[in-house]
Amino acid sequence: MTTSFSRRAALAAGLAMALAAGPAFAQQNQVLRIGVTPGPHAEILEKVKPLAAQKGLDLKITEFSDYVVPNQALDAGELDANSFQHEPYLDNQVKDRGYKIVKVGLTVNFPIGIYSSKYKSWAEIPDGATIAIPNDPTNGGRVLLLLQDKGVIKLKDGVGFKPTVADITGNPKKFKIIELEAAQTPRSLADVAAAAINTNYAVDAKIDPASAILREDAKGPYVNLIAVRAADKDKPWVKTLVEVYQSPEIKSFIAERYKGAVLAGW
After folding, report:
1. What confidence score (pLDDT) does residue 14 get?
2. What string of H, E and C letters represents the secondary structure of the chain?
3. Would you say the pTM of this structure is higher than 0.90?
């Protein structure tokens, strides 16, 4: 009888402990490993983290100092998602490396802009003026697409996301377009009518991104994105992660924190 009683007591105690622990286990969130680059991408994900926790996701954020490893790690299964790149970059990575990685949601844009220390608006820039653009294919191409989008130049059909100066077929105001290293474009402002400057270099040079006389739209082709493995794209956590990132709270944080240097792209 004593043994039976002891067993019943032990079972009762175990059941009580299980019931007491039940809510804690029920609240245990699904862990998601997400790769980012330092700066805004990491800062924004830190703000997403508590919102995701309310939806059952525990974000483990890892920062990478380059643009190569996050996709390698994602494709290898060392990450569940990453947030650091725009679609043209992802497309090139998939094409060149065979990654089975896909876009599942838009995040933010770091819009490239054209600035001038001599003119207050694009309309003031005279015919034949010199415009400096970055000399690398990605950023230089972005500027040429921006100029075409604003009706300044015409490019060959089908040039994709990396047009070059050689692809210009129309330049009615006969602007002279010179190519410089992207990091040097802020310094060129004293010597040219206008210069296209990446947001990070503009900020470093104490140039207000809002002062650009021409600027990419927030929802252009270079909006950054959340990527996952193709095999995971339809899993419930993917939809939840994107919805939390694209919430009004995060949009407000981006607007208040970056003052136009970074724009919500959804």
Report:
1. 52
2. CHHHHHHHHHHHHHHHHHHHHHHHHHCCCEEEEEEECCCHHHHHHHHHHHHHHHCCEEEEEEECCCCCHHHHHHHCCCCCEEEEEEHHHHHHHHHHHCCCEEEEEECEECCCEEECCCCCCHHHCCCCCEEEEECCHHHHHHHHHHHHHCCCCEECCCCCCCCCHHHEEECCCCCEEEEECHHHHHHHHHCCCEEEECHHHHHHCCCCHHHCCEECCCCCCCCEEEEEEHHHCCCHHHHHHHHHHCCHHHHHHHHHHHCCCCEECC
3. no
